[in-house]
Amino acid sequence: MKRGEIGSPAKNTRSKRKTIMEGADPFERGLEPAKILGASVNSSGQLTFLMKWKGIDSLDKVSAKVAHIKCPQLVIAFYEARVVFEKKDTAPGSTAAGSDDEQEENDEAQTEVKTEIKTEAEDQNSDNGDDELSVGETYN
């Protein structure tokens, strides 16, 4: 057999190695995470993150449980980038006068945190008309 032919042992070994590496967990392959690009819920209901890796262009889905352990700072940064603070209207009868400390306390009491992570599960719930709450949602 000539070198490089389809049946050559060297070619088969490389293709097997590539298949094994592609199927392995990105952390086991020695890849270093660069950024979390998105989040979704897989078919079994588990949260997964779409992650970009340093040094390569490919993207991988990683279980949230694994990401929380292997790269907690990236997970925190991902959530912080999507947190929105909304200020509620002031209560009727309240005055604008008052000390700065009182005003800060009122502002903090009226601030509500909402997350804007749209997952496939939320899409499905909205299509079905379900009134279930997802993580970070509140009834208004």
TrEMBL record:
Going by the UniProt record, its keywords in alphabetical order are: Nucleus, Repeat
Q: Which organism is it from?
A: Drosophila pseudoobscura pseudoobscura
Q: Locations of Acidic residues compositional bias?
A: 99-110, 122-134
Q: Which GO terms describe its cellular component?
A: chromosome; nucleus
Subcellular location(s) per record? Nucleus
Known PANTHER family for this protein?
Answer: CHROMOBOX PROTEIN
Q: What is this protein called?
A: Chromo domain-containing protein
Record field: compositional bias (Basic and acidic residues):
111-121
Q: According to the UniProt record, where is the region Disordered?
A: 1-24, 90-140
Domain of life of the native organism: Eukaryota
Q: Which residues form the signal peptide?
A: none
Listed InterPro entries? Chromo-like_dom_sf, Chromo/chromo_shadow_dom, Chromo_shadow_dom, Heterochromatin_chromo-domain
- Pfam families per the UniProt record, alphabetical: Chromo_shadow
Keyword Nucleus assigned: yes
Q: Does the keyword Flavoprotein apply?
A: no
Residue span(s) of domain Chromo? 31-90
- Which SUPFAM superfamilies does the entry mention? Chromo domain-like (SSF54160)
Gene behind this chain? Dpse\GA29223
